[in-house]
From TrEMBL:
Organism, scientific name: Lysobacter antibioticus
EC number: 3.2.1.52
Enzyme class name: hydrolase
GO molecular function, one term: beta-N-acetylhexosaminidase activity
Active-site residues (renumbered): E333 (proton donor)
UniProt similarity note: Belongs to the glycosyl hydrolase 20 family.
Catalytic reaction(s) noted: Hydrolysis of terminal non-reducing N-acetyl-D-hexosamine residues in N-acetyl-beta-D-hexosaminides
Domain Glycoside hydrolase family 20 catalytic intervals: 157-503
The protein, known as: beta-N-acetylhexosaminidase
GO cellular component term of the entry, any: membrane
One GO BP: glycosaminoglycan metabolic process
Lineage of origin: Bacteria, Pseudomonadati, Pseudomonadota, Gammaproteobacteria, Lysobacterales
Record key words, sorted: Glycosidase, Hydrolase, Signal
Keyword Hydrolase attached: yes
Beta-hexosaminidase bacterial type N-terminal domain sequence ranges: 25-154
Length: 539
């Protein structure tokens, strides 16, 4: 279907060699440039993975590649440190002179061997992922044949993200790592971890142990929250700081940055349940429970200096755990009812010379941004942070209520990440099938995801430079089991990866569908539950 892909290349099969996979360029996201070559490379247990003796980064990439090959094809090629290139070798080489960026790579596949080359470890890793996909496109075991081709690849956007909500339903470290693994295999590089919300506080903060002891547990509404004798059954989960560090390290090894989100001033009910003095104390006199149900709740932080002291202490620990440049502070859906009802808050608004509660939220965000700046970190928030006043120049906006916020912010000189709900939310249902799990309406299909265009049409070329990229968000209200998380994610993650990685001109729904067949087989082989709805629904 594509003139520049290697699909058409096939030499007469000589009995001993395995056949070339039907779709020989089954790579997702689709590489920027593919030029077909002559012949094929035979990849089997005898293949050597060659790395320079002193190149630790290339060695890590080669080891990771060998383990992934072992998982799918049942053999692990050996690592030949300091060995020579040859027709039986795949060379992984860092070349600091390469002109392209740190995430770019070239992949040269021919009869006389394979060379994966990049300027930096990230690019080399992505080159190996592409090679792994080519080497597993037929879904088979044992030796494989890979069509000769030359790939020159680099991402379109620097922010290629996924958000996972572990506040509504907790996910184990292993489950989180499994998601991170799949992100890496799709060349995504930013994992946004939604760690706090009304229904749960999931990150250990040493200074405030009740955040997780109390805020990490809730009682589910209805029968699900009671045991056989009708006694409440706590439903709990949080990550220790050691576990957080482990996940951050695991992600970094896969060239993924973890961006934590600590919600404020709203979506704070679990924190206020743990420490009621953080709330609007002249209105709320009794500690709320950690929220047992969904929706936009009214508990939000107060604006006393003591509450800012708490938030700053929390952020200080968060900054210590997460090396990311960006710290997400939420900012969405902060219902202002309690601020409006509070004489203390109203007095504060007056004393600051502010107009109203919206202006107070803007002031709140500015104060937190200043604190993060002391740590050399950039405040990131949902598009509500644009409301009520001027955002600090460095603040970055994540646009979820469509792309309006992205347009406004980019025009105003802020960097933006687009994550519009109707297009890139993974909690929407995917079909009208009887076995479709519950979720938000209307239906959001794989094709809807695939056809999303990242840069809003309203932006001119200069403003568009502020668009860092896009991410999909997986809110978990409807997703209690990990299997439901997985079927919401896969294969829509494939569509997302192409939208944020591949050049616009390479976006092609028919071609994508063909390549997806091999990917669905890879999911099965890796024991990853993917939704088959893409095949069941007529588009
Ligand atoms: C809105 S999107 C929220 C989340 C919900 C989601 C449900 C956003 C910034 N806030 O709290 O989980 O809708 O789709």
């Amino acid at each position: 279907t594509s003139s520049s892909s290697a699909d058409a290349t096939s030499t007469a099969a000589s009995g001993a060699e395995p056949a070339i996979a039907a779709h020989a360029s089954a790579v997702i996201p689709r590489p920027a440039q593919v030029v077909a070559g002559e012949g094929r490379f035979v990849f089997g247990p005898q293949t050597r993975l060659v790395v320079a003796a002193d190149d630790a980064a290339a060695r890590r990439v080669a080891e990771d590649f060998a383990a992934r090959v072992q998982q799918l094809r049942g053999f692990a090629p050996s690592i030949d440190s300091g060995g020579k290139a040859g027709a039986d070798a795949i060379v992984f080489a860092l070349d600091p002179k390469s002109a392209a960026g740190d995430e770019a790579y070239t992949l040269d596949i021919g009869r006389d061997g394979v060379r994966v080359q990049a300027r930096a470890a990230a690019g080399l890793f992505y080159g190996a992922v592409t090679l792994w996909q080519l080497a597993t496109a037929d879904g088979g075991k044992g030796a494989a044949s890979i069509a000769a081709q030359r790939i020159d690849d680099a991402p379109r956007f620097v922010w290629r993200g996924l958000m996972l909500d572990v506040a509504r339903h907790f996910r184990s470290v292993d489950e989180v790592k499994s998601v991170i693994d799949q992100m890496a295999l799709h060349k995504l590089n930013t994992f946004h971890w939604h760690l706090t919300d009304d229904q749960g506080w999931r990150v250990e903060i040493k200074k405030y142990p009740r955040l997780t002891e109390v805020g990490g547990c809730r009682i589910l509404a209805g029968a699900a929250g009671r045991d056989a004798e009708g006694k409440p059954k706590p439903y709990c989960g949080y990550y220790t700081q050691e576990q957080i560090r482990d996940v951050v390290r695991y992600a970094a090894e896969r060239h993924i940055t973890v961006v934590p989100e600590i919600e404020m001033p709203g979506h704070a009910q679990s924190a206020i349940a743990a420490y009621p003095e953080l709330g609007v104390t002249d209105v709320v006199r009794k500690a709320p429970p950690v929220s047992p149900d969904w929706g936009v709740h009214t508990y939000l932080y107060g604006v006393d200096d003591s509450t800012f002291g708490f938030l700053e202490n929390v952020l200080d620990e968060v900054v210590g755990l997460f090396p990311s440049r960006y710290i997400h502070i939420g900012g969405d859906e902060a219902a202002k009812d309690q601020w409006i009802a509070s004489p203390n808050v109203q007095a504060k608004i007056k004393s600051l010379g502010l107009k109203d509660e919206m202006a107070l939220q803007s002031w709140f965000v500015g104060r937190i941004a200043g604190h993060l700046q002391k740590h050399d970190r950039i405040l990131l928030g949902w598009d509500e942070i644009l409301e009520g006043g001027k955002l600090p120049a460095s603040a970055t906006v994540m646009s979820w209520r469509g792309t309006k916020g992205a347009v406004e912010a980019a025009r105003d000189g802020h960097d933006v990440v687009v994550a519009p709900d109707r297009q890139l939310y993974l909690d929407y249902v995917q079909s009208d099938r009887d076995d479709e799990p519950s979720g938000r309406f209307p239906i959001s299909t794989l094709r809807d995801f695939y056809q999303f265009s990242v840069v809003p049409a309203e932006l001119d070329a200069a403003q568009s430079k502020h668009v860092l990229g896009a991410q999909a968000n997986l809110w978990a209200e409807h997703r209690r089991s990990f299997e439901r998380i997985q079927t919401a994610l896969y294969p829509r993650l494939d569509a997302l990866s192409e939208v944020v990685w591949s050049p616009q001109a390479r976006i092609d729904w028919n071609d994508f569908q063909q390549r997806l067949a091999a990917q669905m087989a890879r999911y099965r082989a890796q024991d990853v539950k993917a939704s088959d709805v893409a095949y069941a629904v007529k588009f």
